[in-house]
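Quarterly update from the structural biology core.
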Amino acid sequence: MKYFKTECKNLFLSPKRLFYVLVFPLIIFGFFAAIFYKGVPRDLPMAYINYDQSQLSENLLRMLDATPNIDLKIKLTDEKEAQRLIQQQQIMGFIVIPADFQQKLFKGENQSVICYTNNQFMLGAGLIQKDFQTTIGMFSAGLVMKKKMQKGQQTERVRAEAQTVKVDDHGLFNPYSNYAYYLLTALLPMMLQMIVMMVTVYVLGVEFRYRQGKHWLAQAGGNPLKALVGKLLPYTLVLFFVAWWMNYLLFGLIGAPLHIPMFNVVLITFALVVIYQIIGITLVSLLPNFRSALTIGSGFTAIAFSFAAYTFPIEGLPKSMQYLAQIFPYAHFMKYYVNRAIKGIPVEMTWQPLLALLLFGLLLIVAYPMFVKKIKSGGYESI
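Predicted structure, tokenized:
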């Protein structure tokens, strides 16, 4: 307890350490929340070229401009100019209405309205194409209905024939198609595990780098376990607060759907913090120098997002990559976190990822004897 109080003073009286453990994570979380505060992109800038200049083509353009994701803000007469604006990223794409559009439609001839999008931005391009196709479908159906009613067919029958099969679409778990709910659920825990790893490796490794292990052990009364717990516990408690704030920000302030009590979500996030602290202890204890521990620790957490297969189904990865993904606690955490918090799947149906996450705690059995040996020797032999 005495060494714990000493380490608390070292943490809270050191602006540098307090910034990296507490202030920096809160800034990062706020930064990502600010980026995605709109949830869904709206009014994406588009250009249009109307070679027809008819009333019908203008009506179509007004319908397209009225959609949530298309903002027809620039009128052009040249497709090369439109391509130049796309390259300069001033517009997301452009729409071309051919000449004699109205005349040929009234003659019963098919016409093509072309929508070009910059597919480097897949999200924006997908939203534009969705609104474009929906609007063109409605516009075409309206023309067909108008022709049939002019021939004397009843309105109700014409409407039924225009849409013989009705689509009843229900989006599960994120019915709003909100990208803040989708991406922040993965990005915030990713940043948390990186911070936990770096803080743990730095706090322990810097003592070994400057060969302060014996002095550290003496302050803890010669007990390696007290030295380890007393050193890390203040940081653990602060990181617990950071983990709680992350969940409160995501589910409380941003409003991501939550299907279980907040306490359960916070508890599993606390487990993530402890597991990455154990991995940090393992790296510091097993590796020969401080530089290696920092490098491997940062690399291990940085690539974890890729192997979590959050934006790409893990079943679509090669078998070798699927097996490799199992060594990342973050991957197991995300699977359980999403299944329980977002989808509300009962724990008895999704306990395997939780068990896999907690099994990483067994690394402490291997790491602790090496830690004892290192602290008694004073630290690293080389910087």
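The mean pLDDT is 88.
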